[in-house]
Amino acid sequence: MAELPLAAHAAPVGGTPPIPRVPAAFYVRDPREVAVDLLNKVLVHNDPVHGPISGRIVEAEAYLGVGLDPGSHAFRGPGKRNATMFGPPGRLYVYFTYGMHWCSNVVCNPAGAGGAVLMRALAPLEGMEAMWSRRPKARRERDLCSGPGKLAQALGLTGALDGTDLSAGPVFLLDDGTPPPSRPGNSVRIGISIGKGEESPWRWWVPGDPNVSGPPPRPR
DNA sequence: GGTGTGATCGTA
DNA sequence: ACGATCACACCA
């Protein structure tokens, strides 16, 4: 797929209206609403070395606030790793897992509640060369961003960016006018074990997009 | 296409 | 001990 011309810097180009960032109020809602509305928004990392790297969000999962959702990092309240979840909404929560992967979330709810949306897959748009170089094991385009660890690696999102304000930082979200699907795919979340909210159907995706990791997982 | 398993380490 | 995972081996 050819790269689309995308005003990732939000710098007005002559004759072309800038693509607006998602407004701050967008995030001050239940993560389940935010997750659906994040579908088809564009995640951008204005990388200091590679320049803009971006993709359209095609899969997301909601994780609720403190005490509500045993599958959520916020369930037991703030700690060292998840402190960002309890700060202001509209920030990037990046955590390290399985001893080797980074995963990226958007903080939701009013400050202090906890709760976030995990971005699970992107359709690559911009900076594909940087994505390929950061993910040398990828064979096909859909190997670049088809999972939370993969998209974080492709975009260069690490713990150094945890807490980034999406309305000001080098990582942000754009609304280019593409609405969420009227009928998004929906299933239980991936990787949640039995007794930790595995029955909660809080995963959503853009139907038919090749970057989405397969249909509903079996509980484990 | 599918399933099963090892890697690797911060947090609890 | 256990992960909000990935890659690779192997079978079909």
Structure description:
The protein has helices at 31-38, 128-134, 148-155, and strands at residues 42-47, 51-63, 92-97, 101-107, 116-126, 171-174, 185-187, 203-205. By secondary structure, it is α+β, with helices and mostly antiparallel strands. The protein has one domain (24-205): Roll (3-methyladenine DNA Glycosylase, Chain A). Strands 1, 2, 3, 4, 5, 6, 7 and 8 form an eight-stranded antiparallel beta sheet that branches. The radius of gyration is 16 Å and the shape is globular. Mean pLDDT is 92; it is low at 1-5. The protein binds a DNA duplex (12 and 12 nucleotides) through strand 3, strand 4 and helix 3.
Layout of helices and strands, plus pairs?
Layout: H1 31-38, E1 42-47, E2 51-63, E3 92-97, E4 101-107, E5 116-126, H2 128-134, H3 148-155, E6 171-174, E7 185-187, E8 203-205
Antiparallel strand pairs: 1-2, 1-6, 2-5, 2-8, 3-4, 4-5, 7-8
This protein binds a DNA duplex (12 and 12 nucleotides) through residues 61, 63, 71-73, 76, 79-81, 95-101, 103, 105, 118, 120, 137, 147-150, 189-193.
Give a short synopsis of this structure:
The chain has 220 residues and is α+β, with helices and mostly antiparallel strands.
Main sheet makeup: 8 strands, antiparallel
Radius of gyration: 16 Å
The CATH class is: Alpha Beta
What overall form do the CA principal axes indicate? globular
Low-confidence stretches: 1-5
Q: How much of the polypeptide forms β-strand, as a percent range?
A: 15-25%
* CATH homology-level superfamily: Methylpurine-DNA glycosylase (MPG)
Percentage of residues assigned to helices: 10-25%
Average pLDDT over all residues: 92
Number of helices, where a helix is a run of at least 4 consecutive DSSP H or I residues: 3
What's the architecture, going by CATH?
A: Roll
Structural class, by secondary structure, is: alpha+beta
CATH domain topology: 3-methyladenine DNA Glycosylase, Chain A
Order of helices and strands: HEEEEEHHEEE
Number of domains: 1
Distance between the termini: 36 Å
The overall strand count is: 8
